[in-house]
Amino acid sequence: MSTDALAADRALLSRTSTAERVAGILRTRIIEGYFPPGTRLAEDAIGSALGVSRNTLREAFRLLSHERLLTHELNRGMFVRSLTAEDVVDLYQVRRFVECGVIRTVTGPHPGLEAVAESIAAGESALAAREWRALGTANMDFHQALVALAGSPRADELMSGILAELRLVFHVMADPRRFHEPYLARNREILEQLQRGDGPGAAETLDVYLRDAENQLVQAFADRLADRGE
């Protein structure tokens, strides 16, 4: 079989790979809270900052739109997506399937627990420094580390997308410290259960934890609508 046609696709492959890397950078920034919901992403400014072409950046935007992180508004441009209470319910349902399913299988020593412990330590440092966005990021890292215990690249990729969407949800909380701080102790409780090899118990603890967080966020959306008179 001739490879001439594939050779002609070389430039397309290079551009797509760059677009994926750009999408990864922007996705990370969304997870870290640098781009709140409703933020307009200016092509010229972002393209110049990253040193990429407009076509590459638009391909990255397309990838992130497919991940439900960005949305295009006609004649206005690309914006970071604003989520709803319905999105919260769906995201937390998936989180319970994935996270609880993974840690339930931990019944003995696991090398991945070191990363889980490091994320908790980072959260405690952020709390001490009163860096609330960093506290939220450390909490995200905790949950990513839990899923990483499965040793599955597909599960890791799925969780990364979920966490990026969740960062957009968390902006609904007026006081990020009040939302994130209480979960630090609960993170440590889950870690201690996993260190004892009690994966099933940790899964039950996490299930309650996630349901509590979901209820808080759904209530925050309801309060926001009430404040707007909607």
Automatic annotation (TrEMBL):
Keyword Transferase attached: no
PROSITE patterns named in the record: HTH_GNTR (PS50949)
SMART domains recorded: FCD, HTH_GNTR
Q: Which residues form the HTH gntR-type domain?
A: 16-83
**What keywords sit in the KW lines?**
DNA-binding, Transcription, Transcription regulation
Output the CDD domains linked to this UniProt entry: WHTH_GntR
Q: Does the keyword Acyltransferase apply?
A: no
Q: Which Pfam families match?
A: FCD, GntR
Q: What is this protein called?
A: GntR family transcriptional regulator
Could you tell me which species this protein originates from?
Pseudonocardia zijingensis
